[in-house]
Specification:
A 5-stranded parallel sheet has the order 2-1-3-4-5, sandwiched between helices. The protein is α/β, with parallel strands linked by helices. The protein has 5 helices and 5 strands.
Length: 180
C-alpha cells in the first residue's frame, strides 16, 4: 500500500531520521524535522537559491567554483562575488570577512571539503570562524558538503556544529559516496 501512496514532500520520515543521525555524528544538532530530501545536491542548491536569492542579489562563492552552481546562480539572476581559494585550506578568511562586510551578499556558498575544482578542505578552526563571520554579517552560509565523506581520515565536522540555527544551510548528496 505504501508503494502506491503519496509521500510527504519533505521526504520519508525514517530516512530523514537516519540522515539527521549521520549529521549529528559530525557535530550537528538537528532532528528529522530539520531535514528535507531532494533528488541530489544540485536540486538542493537550486531550492536554497530559489528561496534566498532574487534577481540582482549578490551571492559570494569560492573561486574557482563548480560550474553547475554558477549556472544556477546565473539562472537566478544573481551577481557573483568571487572569493579566491588560497591553497588547500580554502578561502582566505580575512579577505572573506572584508568582502562580506563590504558587499553584504545574500549568501555565501562554499564546498567545504575537497572542493570542486580546487580540492581544498576547510579545516575545523576555519569552519568555526567562517560561521562566526557569516553570522556577524547576516550572511546565510550554504555548506555544499557533497565530498565530505570522501576526506581521507574521515568526514570533518559540518559547519552546522558551530551554528545556532541562524546561519548555516547544509546540502549534500550520496552521489559521490554510496552510489557514484
Amino acid at each position: 500500500a505504501g508503494m502506491y501512496a503519496y509521500h510527504h514532500p519533505e521526504g520519508d520520515h525514517r530516512l530523514r531520521e537516519l540522515l539527521a543521525g549521520r549529521l549529528n555524528a559530525r557535530g550537528a544538532n538537528i532532528g528529522a524535522n530539520d531535514v528535507v530530501t531532494t533528488t541530489g545536491c544540485t536540486q538542493a542548491l537550486q531550492v536554497m537559491i530559489s528561496i534566498l536569492v532574487k534577481p540582482g542579489d549578490i551571492v559570494a562563492v569560492e573561486a574557482p567554483a563548480y560550474y553547475g552552481m554558477l549556472e544556477l546562480l546565473s539562472e537566478a539572476g544573481a551577481q557573483v562575488l568571487p572569493i579566491p581559494v588560497r591553497g588547500g585550506e580554502g578561502i582566505d578568511l580575512d579577505l572573506t570577512e572584508e568582502l562580506l562586510t563590504r558587499w553584504k551578499p545574500r549568501c555565501l556558498i562554499v564546498c567545504a571539503a575537497l572542493s570542486n575544482p580546487s580540492g581544498a578542505t576547510i579545516p575545523d578552526e576555519s569552519r568555526k570562524r567562517l560561521v562566526e563571520i557569516c553570522r556577524a554579517n547576516g550572511v546565510r552560509l550554504i555548506e555544499d558538503d557533497i565530498y565530505g565523506e570522501l576526506v581521507d581520515g574521515g568526514a570533518p565536522r559540518t559547519m552546522l556544529a558551530w551554528d545556532d540555527g541562524s546561519t548555516v544551510s547544509y546540502v549534500t548528496s550520496f552521489s559521490k559516496t554510496i552510489s557514484p
